[in-house]
Amino acid sequence: MLKVERLDAFYGQSHILHGIDLSVDEGRRTTVLGRNGAGKSTLLKSITNSGPKVEGTVAIEGRPLGSRAWFRRAKDGVAFVPEDRRIFTHITVEENIELGRFGASAARPVVPAAQIYEWFPMLGPLRARLGGQLSGGQQQMLAVARAVAARPRLLLLDEPTEGLAPVIVEDLAKIVARICDELGITLLLVEQNIWFGRQTTDRVYVLDTGSVVFSGSWAEFDRDETIRNRHLALA
Ligand SMILES: Nc1ncnc2c1ncn2[C@@H]1O[C@H](COP(=O)(O)OP(=O)(O)OP(=O)(O)O)[C@@H](O)[C@H]1O
Q1: Is pLDDT of 3 > 60?
Q2: pTM over 0.80
Q3: 41 CB under 6 A from ligand 1?
Q4: What is the ipTM of this complex?
Q5: Which ligand 1 atom is nearest residue 43's CA?
């Protein structure tokens, strides 16, 4: 479904990603782990063409994505929740979700509002509230709700748990896993929260200073002490 080949990324003269090869099969879910500054966000920005200068190829179902702006990729069934969430602060929760429907098509009709509020029960009572009046956790829920409103085929999540209380992280893990199951979404998640990755995905990549140093199942990850000690600095 998603295939990244020999991807290099640059910010000006800084060479951030080095020859990344990564693939996620249709309907599968993958986490990319890495320490601060490893290049996780740069990877998602490279896939979505929303920042760095990129060399190499990013293809969905064999079709290279080319240089189209990331928000236009919604029409290709690609939804991206960046680290800063990009909630529109001066419109309501309901209107934020409505904007997410932009990427829908005949093949991928919008998800009815009632379904969104069933997945995200905490958003229902807030539907008339302005985006800027939500807590961080509520904003993250809204960002994911908006991203799935057009039934994406590929969902890219950049550190969705950052700054969230543990109870919200648990809720979000259940919700993300459920939506991916029900819609058959292919997920690429970038995280530092290993627990969240385990709950929502079945494969894992580890990035260190812009290179892939591991890829495999979570069971293989657990067996590989070098990866945990040297590349993630976990005890
Ligand atoms: N706009 C930019 N201009 C120049 N360098 C950048 C820019 N954005 C990120 N970098 C650098 O690229 C490297 C990778 O950053 P990136 O944000 O991709 O890491 P990350 O793994 O997502 O880290 P974090 O978990 O802290 O968000 C870092 O050295 C960072 O300083």
Answers
A1: yes
A2: yes
A3: yes
A4: 0.96
A5: 18
